[in-house]
C-alpha cells in the first residue's frame, strides 16, 4: 500500500504530464490549421497541373517519342521508394502506419526478386526502417530545420530523384506519405510518380494550340509535375502529422485525467483508512483505561 | 462579346491573383503575346519575363520566372514556377532565379541544354530590364 505522500507526489506528476499533453494538443491544433491552409492553397496548382498533364499525356503516352518520365524505361527491375515521414515523434501511429505500408511494399518487391532503393524524408521513418533495410537506403532528406515546408524543399527532393532517373539508377519511383482526410483519419498512401500515371478518360473539351510542340511542353511539364506531387505529399504529411499528434495528445490528456481521478479516489480512501485507524486506536485506548 | 475573362495566377504554394481582367500580356516560349477574351485555346510554356495584367483601369505588373499558361474557353490560367509583383523584386531574388536556371542548365542532358541555356539568358535579360545589377 503506497503511503499518502507517495500518492500525492504521483498525482502531482500526472497532473503536470496532463498539462504538457494539453499544451501539445493545442499547439498541434494551431499548427494543423496552418498546415491545412497551406495544403488548401497549393491545391489549385496541383489540380491544374494534373488536368493539363492528363490532356497532354493521354495523346502522347503510346508514341515512341514520349519522354521516358511518361513512358517508363520499359522494365521494372529497380524500384525507388521515397518514404516521407515526420521529423518528430509523439504523433500516435502516424509514422508507424506509413512505415508499415512501405515495409509491406518492400517485402513484396524483394520477394519478387526486384532491386529496391530507399530515400527517406524525415528522421522518424528512417529510424524505423534502418534496422531491417539499412543496406537499401541510398539517401536521406533532413527537413528538421524546416519550419514550414516550402516548394523549394519539394523541388530539391524531386531534382535528386530526377537526376537519379536520368542516370538510370531506377525504373519505377513510388512515393509514400499519409493523406490527410480529417483529424481522426490519416490514410497511408503509396503513389507511383515515375513513370507518370495518367488518368484515363481525361478528354479535353477544347482543342489546344501548343506552343512549342506537345512533346517539348511534356518534357518541361513532367519534371515539374514530379516536384508538384512531392510537394503535395509533403503538405499532406504535415497536416496529417499535426492531426495525428492532436488526437494522440487528446487521448493522452483524457487518460491522464482518468488516472488522476483513480489516484485521487485511492488517496482519499487511504486517508480515510488512516483516520479510521487512528480513531480506533484512540477509542480502544480510552476503553482500556 | 464578353469584354472580360477569368484570370488566375497560381504558384505551387498559393494562388496569387484571381480576377476578371480585360487583357494580359505575357512572354510565351515562342514570343510575347497578349491574351484577350475569346482567345483561341492555347497551351504555352512561359519564359522568364514580365506579365502585365489589365484589370479594369488597374494595371498589375508581375515578374514570372517560368511555368506555363493555359488559355481555355473559361479564361486564362497561369501556372507560374515563381511569380512576384514587379515592385517587390529584389536583387537577391533575381540572383536566386538566375542561379537556379544556370544549375538546371548544367545538370541537364545534352538535348535539353540549348533551351535551358536560353532560359538563363532570358533570366539575365530580365534582370537587366529591371535595372538590377547581377553580380553573377
Topology:
The complex is a heterodimer of chains A (289) and B (136).
Chain A: H1 4-60, H2 68-71, E1 78-84, H3 94-111, E2 115-121, H4 123-133, E3 137-141, H5 151-166, E4 172-180, E5 186-194, E6 209-211, H6 214-288
Chain B: E1 5-10, E2 15-21, E3 23-28, E4 31-35, E5 42-55, E6 58-64, E7 67-72, E8 75-80, E9 83-85, H1 91-107, H2 110-129
Parallel strand pairs in B: 1-8
Antiparallel strand pairs in B: 1-2, 3-4, 3-5, 5-6, 5-7, 6-9, 7-8
Overall residue-averaged pLDDT value of chain B: 82
CA-CA gap between termini of chain A: 32 Å
Helix vs. strand class of chain A: alpha/beta
Note the main sheet of chain B. 9 strands, mixed
How are the strands of the largest sheet of chain A arranged? 3-2-1-4-5
Strand content of chain B: 35-45%
Low-confidence stretches of chain A: none
Task: Write out the CATH superfamily name of the largest domain in chain B.
Answer: F0F1 ATP synthase delta/epsilon subunit, N-terminal
Amino acid at each position: 500500500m503506497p503511503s499518502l505522500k507517495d500518492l500525492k507526489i504521483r498525482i502531482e506528476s500526472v497532473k503536470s504530464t496532463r498539462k504538457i499533453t494539453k499544451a501539445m494538443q493545442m499547439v498541434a491544433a494551431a499548427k494543423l490549421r496552418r498546415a491545412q491552409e497551406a495544403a488548401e492553397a497549393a491545391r489549385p496548382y496541383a489540380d491544374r497541373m494534373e488536368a493539363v498533364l492528363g490532356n497532354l499525356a493521354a495523346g502522347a503516352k503510346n508514341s515512341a517519342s514520349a519522354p521516358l518520365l511518361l513512358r517508363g524505361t520499359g522494365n521494372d527491375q529497380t524500384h525507388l521508394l521515397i518514404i516521407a515521414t515526420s521529423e518528430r515523434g509523439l504523433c500516435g501511429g502516424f509514422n508507424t502506419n506509413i512505415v508499415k505500408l512501405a515495409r509491406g511494399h518492400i517485402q513484396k518487391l524483394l520477394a519478387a526478386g526486384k532491386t529496391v532503393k530507399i530515400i527517406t524524408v524525415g528522421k522518424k521513418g528512417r529510424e524505423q526502417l534502418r534496422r531491417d533495410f539499412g543496406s537499401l537506403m541510398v539517401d536521406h532528406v533532413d527537413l528538421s530545420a524546416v519550419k514550414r515546408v516550402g516548394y523549394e524543399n519539394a523541388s530539391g527532393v524531386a531534382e535528386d530523384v530526377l537526376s537519379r532517373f536520368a542516370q538510370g539508377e531506377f525504373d519505377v519511383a513510388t512515393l509514400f506519405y499519409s493523406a490527410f482526410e480529417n483529424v481522426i483519419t490519416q490514410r497511408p498512401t503509396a503513389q507511383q510518380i515515375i513513370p507518370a500515371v495518367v488518368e484515363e478518360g481525361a478528354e479535353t473539351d477544347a482543342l489546344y494550340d501548343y506552343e512549342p510542340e506537345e512533346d517539348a511542353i511534356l518534357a518541361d511539364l513532367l519534371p515539374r509535375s514530379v516536384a508538384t506531387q512531392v510537394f503535395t505529399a509533403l503538405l499532406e504529411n504535415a497536416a496529417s502529422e499535426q492531426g495525428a499528434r492532436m488526437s494522440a495528445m487528446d487521448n493522452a490528456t483524457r487518460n491522464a485525467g482518468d488516472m488522476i481521478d483513480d489516484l485521487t479516489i485511492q488517496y482519499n480512501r487511504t486517508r480515510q483508512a488512516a483516520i479510521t485507524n487512528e480513531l480506533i486506536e484512540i477509542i480502544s485506548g480510552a476503553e482500556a483505561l | 462579346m464578353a469584354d472580360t475573362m477569368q484570370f488566375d495566377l497560381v504558384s505551387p504554394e498559393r494562388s496569387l491573383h484571381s480576377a476578371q481582367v480585360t487583357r494580359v500580356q505575357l512572354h510565351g516560349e515562342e514570343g510575347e503575346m497578349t491574351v484577350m477574351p475569346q482567345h483561341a485555346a492555347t497551351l504555352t510554356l512561359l519564359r522568364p519575363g514580365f506579365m502585365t495584367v489589365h484589370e479594369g483601369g488597374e494595371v498589375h505588373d508581375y515578374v514570372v520566372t517560368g511555368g506555363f499558361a493555359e488559355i481555355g474557353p473559361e479564361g486564362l490560367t497561369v501556372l507560374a514556377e515563381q511569380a512576384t509583383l514587379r515592385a517587390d523584386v529584389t536583387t537577391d531574388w533575381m540572383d536566386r532565379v538566375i542561379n537556379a536556371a544556370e544549375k538546371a542548365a548544367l545538370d541537364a542532358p545534352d538535348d535539353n541544354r540549348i533551351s535551358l541555356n536560353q532560359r538563363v539568358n532570358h533570366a539575365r535579360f530580365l534582370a537587366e530590364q529591371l535595372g538590377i545589377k547581377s553580380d553573377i
